[in-house]
Design brief:
single chain; 347 residues; alpha+beta; 3-stranded antiparallel β-sheet; 10 strands; 29% helix; 18% strand; globular
């Protein structure tokens, strides 16, 4: 993303969330995609108003997230957006200053309520009640400006696309038949920094945050959209990417934390530490990586290990000699909808 999508211009990280009363309406996951579009349109209008133009567009990468710190249903949108506008010829118009978070929340609230009202998901009395709140209930966060030459956009993009569940936060034992999911901060509704689940309840809570088949959770808008990038490529406005060297320099290597993470990931998935010495129990160190097949086979033969990959077994025959039917499609069922106004799409 940092080399092919993002342009060398200032960016900002923006997060927009919904009030608790509106969150169950977005368990219909198609609305989450519309939510990301509304968030982009809100920021686009504010940036255009700051520069007094109606034709230039920003570039934005939007990521949809539905999980809170303790796996509650908490839909929100992360955007990495260029803090400025691109003209059709590729020139960039920077924007100074930061918008008022309350103004951003009010404009986004107007768009969300209008969408739900047009779809018939809520009634006018619900809209009137929400507009009467002293606070909008919509959470907004606008980060400081990220310079064009900084490596921060790549780190922010990795944070935006993180999975809904973090294995490091999970605690549990097979004997207790419970899963404890913890967080660093105390949750205001649970009044604790952890939740205790039965295994099946934990799987049900996690499955609610799994996207549907072919559902996109990372979306590109404006100057970074696929259509605009195709136009830029056709007219030679795309930045040329230099060919990578066969042997990357030390400065281009992955960070030390990323290079060390492979052993941690293997330990989490297979419950085996690849760096643990089987003889003394000490920590081993990687001194070389062998990739030549003849040399690898020679070492495996010396150790008495197989040198050929195991064959794959055919799938088992269906029971009672019945022919195998076509695979069933995945289905998604709403867990609950506790709003006083029923959703006509659900009912």
């Amino acid at each position: 993303m940092s080399t092919e999508i993002l342009q060398p211009v200032p960016h900002r990280h923006v997060v927009i969330s919904l009030p608790r009363r509106l969150r169950p309406f977005f368990r219909r996951r198609k609305r989450l995609t519309r939510l990301a579009r509304l968030a982009y349109d809100t920021l686009k209008e504010l940036l255009r108003a700051a520069r007094g133009t109606h034709t230039a567009v920003p570039g934005a990468v939007a990521c949809l997230q539905s999980a809170g710190n303790l796996l509650d249903w908490h839909p929100h949108v992360h955007l990495l957006i260029s803090w400025g506008l691109f003209r059709r010829d590729g020139s960039f118009i920077p924007v100074e200053g930061t918008p008022d978070p309350e103004m951003l929340a009010r404009l986004f609230r107007h768009k969300v309520l209008r969408m739900l009202l047009e779809e018939g998901a809520i009634e006018e009395r619900v809209v009137g009640n929400l507009l009467a709140w002293p606070h909008t209930g919509f959470g907004t966060h606008v980060s400081r400006e990220i310079p064009a030459d900084a490596k921060t956009p790549g780190a922010v993009a990795r944070y935006m696309t993180r999975p809904p569940i973090t294995p490091d936060r999970m605690l549990g034992e097979a004997s207790s038949a419970q899963v404890i999911y913890r967080s660093e901060a105390v949750h205001p509704r649970h009044q604790a920094n952890f939740r205790v689940f039965d295994p099946l309840d934990f799987l049900a809570e996690v499955s609610a945050h799994i996207p549907n088949a072919h559902e996109k959770t990372t979306l590109f808008y404006g100057w970074y959209s696929n259509r605009t990038r195709g136009y830029r490529k056709q007219h030679g406005l795309l930045a040329k990417v230099e060919a990578a060297d066969p042997l990357p320099s030390p400065a281009d290597r992955a960070p030390l934390g990323v290079r060390r993470s492979w052993a941690r990931l293997i330990r989490q998935v297979y419950e085996v530490d690849p760096l643990l010495c089987p003889r003394c129990g000490g920590t081993m160190k990687v001194i070389a990586v062998l990739e030549r097949p003849p040399l690898v086979r020679q070492i495996l033969t010396h150790l008495g290990l197989p040198t050929a990959a195991p064959g794959f077994r055919a799938p088992p025959a269906p029971p009672d000699g019945l022919p195998a039917g076509p695979p069933r499609e995945w289905s998604y069922e709403l867990l609950f909808d506790d709003l006083p106004v029923p959703d006509p799409v659900i009912v």
